[in-house]
Structures are given as structure tokens and as C-alpha cells.
């Protein structure tokens, strides 16, 4: 898995600061201030935009006071996001703000959560395991991995026509099963 350069840089600064490097810690706080300012500004309505700086300071203070809770084996930006998110939620509650916050693009600063992808892959594997193995593999190769029918058929030593029929019947069986029908 390729790590985002921002994640790498911020994590290295955090680890160095935890090891006592004061210059790295000053640099980390400065860079976090810029990232957090943008993060909060995107989430606040224009009427509350002036609160962004307060949220940045509260979050930096929380990071400072809780920095020893950071698990060195985890992505730093995921920990940062959790702290920032909690500060934002606390702020919204204090202000009794009822607003819709766009959740798109937590942007390049935050690590991608692979857990949801892993759960979806596991669920997909469970579903495909309910049909014959060859059919499940043909569906995986063509519909999920993007292989052509010819490539999938060649991998199983069958004709393209046989592969197409197998895929069609497998998908039809799954659709019937999960639409409440029978096989």
C-alpha cells in the first residue's frame, strides 16, 4: 500500500517529537495548524467561519495534551482526524448548531480507512462462495478485477461461451437468492 506523502511527513514529525525533538514538534504544530484551518473552514458555514481559528487552537491543545496516546504503529492522520472530529462535534454541540456538513473529500491529509473495503471484500467473498467455485472465480475475474471473458475463460481452460454462460447463470442465481427468490 502506497502511503500518502502528507501522512509520511506528519507521522515522521510526530515520531521525532515524541522522541524529544523540539524543532520537529514546532514544525509539526505549524503544519497541523495549516491543515486543521482548512479542515474546519470547509465544515463551518460562513456564519461560523470565524470559529475555525478557535477550533484549530483547541485541537492543537488537545494534540499536545494527548500526544502520548498516539499509537506509533497506526497512521498519524487517522489519529489526527479523530481528535479534530471530536473537537468539531464538541463545538457544534456547544453552539447548538444544526448544519449539514459535506463529508466528501477529507482530502489528502487523512489516511484512507481500508476497514470498510476489507469488510466489503469479505462480504463479497462470502456471497461468491455460495455458488460453484469456478463460477465464483469467473465472476470475480470479469466483474470485479476487470479481466475480459476471454482471459477468465483461458484461466479455467474453457471456451468463452462456456464462461459467459457460467457467469450469467451465477449472477442470475445470486440475484434470485438475494432478491428473496429461490435458486
From TrEMBL:
InterPro entries: RNA_pol_sigma-70-like, RNA_pol_sigma-70_dom, RNA_pol_sigma70_r2, RNA_pol_sigma70_r4_t2, RNA_pol_sigma_r2, RNA_pol_sigma_r3/r4-like, WH-like_DNA-bd_sf. Gene3D superfamilies: 1.10.1740.10, Winged helix-like DNA-binding domain superfamily/Winged helix DNA-binding domain. Residues 122-174 form the RNA polymerase sigma factor 70 region 4 type domain. The keyword Cell wall biogenesis/degradation does not apply. One of its GO terms (biological process) is DNA-templated transcription initiation. Pfam families: Sigma70_r2 (PF04542), Sigma70_r4_2 (PF08281). Belongs to the sigma-70 factor family. ECF subfamily. Transmembrane segments: none annotated. SUPFAM superfamilies: Sigma2 domain of RNA polymerase sigma factors (SSF88946), Sigma3 and sigma4 domains of RNA polymerase sigma factors (SSF88659). This is Sigma-70 family RNA polymerase sigma factor.
